[in-house]
Amino acid sequence: QVQLVESGGGLVQPGGSLTLSCAASGFTLESHSIGWARQAPGKEREGLVCIGYSDDSTYFEDSVKDRFTVSRDNHKNTVYLHLNSLKPEDTAVYYCATSDPSSDYRAPCSDAHALDYWGQGTQVTVSS
User: Fold this and answer.
1) Nearest Cα to 31, choosing from 96, 99, 81, 110?
2) What is the DSSP string of the chain?
3) Per-residue pLDDT reduced to its tens digit, 69-106
4) Nearest to 86 by CA among 121, 49, 125
5) Which residues of 53-91 are buried (b: 16+ CB within 10 A; e: fewer)?
6) How far apart, in whole angstroms, are the C-alpha atoms of residue 125 and residue 49?
7) CB 2 within 8 A of CB 101
């Protein structure tokens, strides 16, 4: 089964850290750009950061640039989003996405709109 599965969310206090995982099954993540986005209650989904083929990072949201980092482990077929210095406003469902694994087109981070193959999301709640 071809899918992305996010995990690692939970409840954390302000100032705390979490690492989210995006694991792929049915295809290899190594040749794909992977984007992370989040959706807070009552708000639209917003793109955060993308890791490209060469492990370069592209940030779409300035408020997380100095606090969130993205990495990948090709042996585990997994991409990670490291969340640091968390704030209550970071509370949201976090999603990873890539371009359609069945397509020959591997969208780069510069074509973020083509990263439209989503996982189911993982909830992050920042609260004391």
Assistant:
1) 99
2) --EEEEE--EEE-TT--EEEEEEEESS-GGGS-EEEEEE-TTS--EEEEEE-TTS-EEES-GGGTTTEEEEEETTTTEEEEEE-S--GGG-EEEEEEES-TTSS----GGGGGG--EE---EEEEE--
3) 999 999 999 999 999 999 999 999 999 999 999 999 99
4) 125
5) eeeeebbbeeebeeebbbebeeeebbbbbebeebeeebb
6) 19
7) yes
Closest residue by Cα to residue 6 from 18, 20, 17: 20
